[in-house]
Specification:
The protein is mainly alpha-helical. The protein has helices at 3-15, 27-39, 42-56, 66-85, 88-91, 95-117, 119-122, 124-129, 136-163, 174-199, 203-216, 224-230, 233-240, 243-255, 268-293, 297-300.
Length: 301
């Protein structure tokens, strides 16, 4: 590059608006700025979601079918081990639909949290080279996880139709409510963990352990009735403070028609509503934490 070309390029760069990677404004003004920046990157966000999906199954013969085969394999294992061998099938009607409904919502939460945690480190090259709202990387994993969730519905809906126990009426309102709770909480956790993981890489391993504990702390492969009978009132209240538990119970309430007469927590819809409000506050705080930490991402990476 000649000296004139270099000087011309420097002059053009000097005329560009300065883009700071540090957080701007206070809690509210900074949030509005971040929302505007992210909203202006819709096309980029769509490209990142497609890249996430393509990269996951790159050079794979079956491609997106793996997003169906993985939960199906887990379903078979739990159905045989817990349903058949341990006799849960005798206590829980239509056990296959019950367990797959819980697994589906759990997989959504697990995928968002685990993928978001490593999203900034995994895109270190882009973070170091160009300016863009870094939140788009965790948000892209959310879009990818939602796509996989929808593909799993392709299995569940025909299974429900074949069973003859078709959900109708107001119970279906639990689906968007439970889904919103899971997405909001998982995104809040994902944003915070993605930022912290840049500075402390052990976080991703802690997340793996925590997700295993959270899985067994939610009624995915066992019934709420067992929990209610085993716990006292105080422990039961703590158990129901888990948003994953509430979302799993909500999805089961919506789609597991055979379990309509099975015990369920009182005021489940109200609990989910409160949980959603709390989750939105946590999402806002997580975004502000992310904005506070992102100023040094490039140096740390």
């Amino acid at each position: 590059m000649s000296t004139l070309e270099s000087e011309g390029r420097s002059a053009r760069l000097a005329q560009e608006d300065w883009q700071s990677s540090a957080p701007g404004g206070g809690l509210f003004s900074g949030t509005l700025r971040s929302v505007r920046e992210i909203a202006g990157q819709k096309e980029l966000l769509g490209l990142l979601v497609r890249r996430e999906l393509k990269a996951r199954y790159k050079d794979s013969t079956l491609g997106f079918l793996w997003s169906l085969l993985r939960p199906l394999s887990i379903l078979v294992v739990y159905y045989v081990a817990i349903g058949k061998f341990l006799g849960a099938e005798r206590q829980i009607p239509e056990f296959a639909i019950y367990i797959f409904t819980g697994l589906m919502i759990w997989q959504l939460f697990s995928e968002i949290v685990s993928s978001s945690t490593g999203s900034i480190v995994g895109n270190a090259g882009l973070v170091r080279k160009i300016y863009l709202p870094r939140e788009v990387f965790p948000f892209a994993t959310v879009g990818s996880a939602l796509f996989n969730f929808l593909t799993q519905l392709v299995i569940l809906i025909p299974a429900i139709l074949l069973s003859g126990s078709i959900p109708t009426g107001s119970r279906l309102l639990y689906v968007p409510l439970s889904l919103a709770v899971i997405v909001v909480f998982a995104t809040a956790l994902g944003l915070a963990l993605a930022a912290v993981n840049v500075y402390l890489r052990d976080v991703q391993y802690l997340v793996e352990i925590s997700l295993t504990i959270l899985f067994w702390a939610s009624p995915v492969v066992y019934s709420w009735a067992l929990v209610r009978d085993a716990l006292g009132s105080v422990a039961e209240g703590i158990y129901l403070d888990n948003p994953i538990t509430l979302a799993v119970l909500g999805m089961q309430r919506a789609l597991w028609v055979a379990g309509t007469d099975q015990p369920s927590p009182e005021g489940l819809a109200g609990r989910l509503g409160v949980c959603l409000v709390v989750g939105l506050v946590l999402l806002w705080l997580a975004q502000r934490l992310f904005a506070r930490l992102e100023g040094n991402f490039a140096q740390e990476l």
